[in-house]
Amino acid sequence: MAKTKILLLSDNNDKIKNVDELINKNAYELYFEKDEEDCLKFLKDMAPEVIIIDIDISNTDLRFLPKKITSARDGIIAIVLSKDDNIPQEILRWADAFLVGDVSSKMLTATINSNLRNKLSYNLLAETNKNNTKSLYTLKVLYNISSEFAATLEKDKLIELMMEGINRSLDFDLCYVLSFNNDNKPVLIVHSKYTLSDELCASLKDHACINYNNLFKNKKAPYEINVENIIFEKHIKSDIDCHTFSIYRYDNMFSQISSGENFFGLVEIYKENGFTSTDVEIFRTIIQQVSMPLKNAFLYQEINETNKKLKKLEKIKSEFISIVSHELRTPLTVIKGMVDNIKRFFTLPEKMHPAIDTISRNIKRLSGIINDLLDISKIEAGKMDYKFAVTTIDDTIKAVQSTLQGLANDKNIKIITDIQDVGVKVFADIDRVDQILVNLVNNAIKFTPNDRTITISAYVKDASELHNEIFEDVLDVLSGKYLVVCVHDEGVGIAKENLKHVFDRFEQIENSLTREAGGTGLGLSIARQLLEAHNGAIWCDSELEKGSDFYFALPVSTDKSNFLIANKQRINQAKVHNDKFATIVVSAENEIIENLLNEENLIHKKYLNNSYKETDGSTTTLTMAILDADRNFAKLFKQKIDDTMVNNKTRYPKCDIMYSYTIYPEVGN
Ligand code: ADP
Which of 327, 355, 606, 648 is surrounded by the most beta carbons within 10 Å? Predict the structure, then answer.
């Protein structure tokens, strides 16, 4: 074992001799210097662990000695020899031990040993502390990136976060990730402390390809990669130096990024000073942590793409229905006109009457089907025009009863009405309410055997009083007061398992009357969507062979319900088009509206009338603005945002106003 080096600073030969005799030569090597300058040089060159200072030394200003010694050799153990207690303050404050008067060998050895032991413990503690601090920092980095991982569904962002996490916790010299972009093209992202030589760039591509192909030696690789199709992306921290091939002499770690069967890429890092076992663990943890969110990001991308395709198909289908039904309607109108003319202007022989009646009935049926198809395509394209107004529906109920009683007479069915709450106001398109009711009563007539009764009742109920196990989801979203209309029949009924399906498009439930009754299976689906537009609901209750109750509910007119119905389409559009945020601008005077939009979770940012400031430094994704403000302010606001976008792209980097509406609160009565 190397001996501990001790330096003695003294110009007194007797003292030097004395200490030399006292020192245990088996454990220590003693050196001495006679003046300050040589002493400081020795400290720098030889780095002794202990210095013994004779404070009776001449030609040395003891007040400055501690500072000079510490700057020559920090952390040295200083033992002071003095003939009496007369020791300068500076030395007293600084030295580790004092030996006053005559010194024995044992005293000197004990003093040196105990100080050396103290120093060793101190160093150990400092080292542990340093390691703890590093672990704590690494833990913090891991914790931070894992929460950041969880917050994103973007592949690129996840890879970026992973690299940042690895860099912060492992401080690599160079790291590359080979991953695949949205078009499944390979991308090689290199992060490096220093610039990269051209040869190294080319070699890194080769290297990544070889690593990738080796990974899939005996299996089919998920993507084709070769040096030509790799997209190279580099991020350099500092240009003061350049990495060359010598990077391959550095210590390196390599891993694939995968989760189960899914492969997302591979990552390799290089570090000059090598990696500890903890580093390996951290590397592995970060790669594991990123795999799951990456899997989600890939799934999310797939879902998005499928969604886009589905939306496109849905659009094509709606357009197809719309075109076909328009095309059918024109010739049908001509046929209807002709038949009406024949009936009006010619006296037909008795024998032809049934044939003409059949033609008329089928024309009516066909035009009903076409109208249903047109309605459905309009609703789905969001092009249905509603004429909302505050109204009662009592007259509509009575009108439907008297009109359809004629049809019901054929089956000797009686239609009665029971309006329990008269004159209740709703905010509705009365023609649509008529359409819904006609459909329900028509169905009731169709599916009810002869000689029975159909009852149309209407009453006000609070949402909390409306219950139905099967339609829980439909009723749960209601709140406040509703005018409920119930069409009760004593017909064939619907089996419990079919109750939900009757509101699906083209859904017809097989029963003894379905074939006879005809129909398209669109009526109830249209009714459901019309009621959705009214912020209402439709549901039913039925028992086979006993009869059915079809209910629909319309919100009783209030400022709030009227506002929400009137702007429902716009609000929905905002939600659909604005994946991230909608920015709603409200004026201070309209707290009610602000609250409503808040309930709808639409307010992301609020600007009061005239309070919009360009200086707010926001980086909001502004995709829509609903303006509830006076027209001038609305215009001004839009202009300001447009200007900001043009003049200062960094302030609103993603600012993209797609819709700008002015919503005025004066709806209803
Ligand atoms: P359709 O044009 O076929 O009547 P709807 O959407 O109005 O289309 O109705 C869908 C299906 O729901 C009907 O085909 C029928 O099977 C069932 N249905 C609707 N109303 C009643 C009722 N009152 N009684 C029994 N079944 C009914």
Answer: 606
